[in-house]
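Entry type: protein chain
Record version: 2
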Amino acid sequence: MVRILKDLDASIEGRNVLVVEDIVDSGLTLSYLLRTLEARGPKSLEVCALLTKPSRREVDLACRYVGFEIPNRFVIGYGLDYGERYRSLPFVAVLDETRLAGLGSELPVEESH
């Protein structure tokens, strides 16, 4: 279920609207948001996403601008978090969930090869 906590302060009727997302996963929340915004009569409505996981998509959803398509892995950093942690990393990394137990200050990311 989606709950909108803060509505728009201005009308978008007749305006070009760009929704900027960090990551598009199943697309369910974004699909709901797009339907809600479309009902307000914008001239155009497009989506820009830093990351998208097409294999997780549950609804048909077009992202006009995509930074990177990624596999179905949990990512952290650059604003993306795991339990309110790792959000401030200056990069995006795949979370290695097998290394989370007993973790001290070590960063639980997969080694890149």
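Comment: The beta strands are 16-24, 44-52, 65-69, 75-76, 93-94.
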